[in-house]
Design the sequence.
């Protein structure tokens, strides 16, 4: 397994022993690029799939929010001149994120970019971890070469969120290791959610068990802010939620049936027809725009999932 700190990478998790010292270094005004590293970014561009688009956090007339929007609000609190673009589109695999979003992202000349992709690849029958990681690393390389600071995430153990996904958990561990190694080679910041027990708390996940809930998106945004060393960030995102009573076997069985009928069945149907949830969709925020509004408060944990 790759070491926690690569030659150039910055790897932070909530309980990383060197986390505080790394954040302290970033906040040092004498650090090269110190003004930017204190959170005063001017152009933030988010690349990815449904998670970065914000699926699971809002919708309807108000539109989707998501962790990237929430991170942008945190960034704007530190630097009101921030402009933010979100190029993510649901259903995209890593190859498509690279082919469709990297060029437009580079054209926007970001000084901060987030790249999160690979979950849709994990769920495909044919999965090549080396190929997926290669697409991610190519994006890391081009964005950092263009002057951007880049942040990425690792993925939690999906089998603890949706037991039916147990066959792909080895793929998740493999891809996470490759993400950490690629990040280390290019000085990419890793918000390492994977090892933390709270990352698989059902309350952080929506009814479909694939997308984060509003609380989950808020935790991801807080993890990203902490990994970047933004003012006002802390490690509270990594702490467990208050205790809750797991559902009875009967309620859990009913939840499994509803989930299979409402989410698993339609997902399999789209795969069999060669369709994607992102067909015909475009980026929700393709241009750099000011970030309006006050930061969204962190939602309280919802009722016991069942």
Sequence:
């Amino acid at each position: 397994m790759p070491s926690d700190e690569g030659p150039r990478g910055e790897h932070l998790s909530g309980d990383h022993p060197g986390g505080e010292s790394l954040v302290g270094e970033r906040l040092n005004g004498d650090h090269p690029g110190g003004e930017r590293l204190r959170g005063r970014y001017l152009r933030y561009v988010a690349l990815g799939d449904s998670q970065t688009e914000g699926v699971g956090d809002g919708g309807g007339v108000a539109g989707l929010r998501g962790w990237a929007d929430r991170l942008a609000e945190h960034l704007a609190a530190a630097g009101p001149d921030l402009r933010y673009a979100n190029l993510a589109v649901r259903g995209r695999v890593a190859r498509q994120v690279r082919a469709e979003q990297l060029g437009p992202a580079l054209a926007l000349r970001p000084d901060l970019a987030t790249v999160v992709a690979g979950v849709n690849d994990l769920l495909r029958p044919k999965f090549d971890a080396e190929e997926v990681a290669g697409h991610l690393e190519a994006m890391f390389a081009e964005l950092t070469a263009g002057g951007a600071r880049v942040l990425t995430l690792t993925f939690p153990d999906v089998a603890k969120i949706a037991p039916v996904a147990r066959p792909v958990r080895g793929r998740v561990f493999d891809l996470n290791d490759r993400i950490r190694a690629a990040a280390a080679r290019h000085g990419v910041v890793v918000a390492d959610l994977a090892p933390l027990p709270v990352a698989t708390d059902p309350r952080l996940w929506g009814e479909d068990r694939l997308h984060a809930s509003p609380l989950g998106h808020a935790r991801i945004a807080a993890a990203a802010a902490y990994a970047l060393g933004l003012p006002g960030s802390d490690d509270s995102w990594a702490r467990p939620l208050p205790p809750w009573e797991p559902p009875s076997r009967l309620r859990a069985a009913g939840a499994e049936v509803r989930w299979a009928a409402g989410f698993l069945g339609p997902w399999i149907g789209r795969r069999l027809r060669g369709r994607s949830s992102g067909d015909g969709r475009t980026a929700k925020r393709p241009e750099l725009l000011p970030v309006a509004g006050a930061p969204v408060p962190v939602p309280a944990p919802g009722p016991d999932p069942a």
About this structure: Strands lie at 10-12, 43-48, 58-59, 63-64, 83-86, 112-116, 149-153, 189-191, 285-290. DSSP finds ten helices and nine strands in the chain. The two ends are 36 Å apart (CA to CA). The chain has a mean pLDDT of 80.
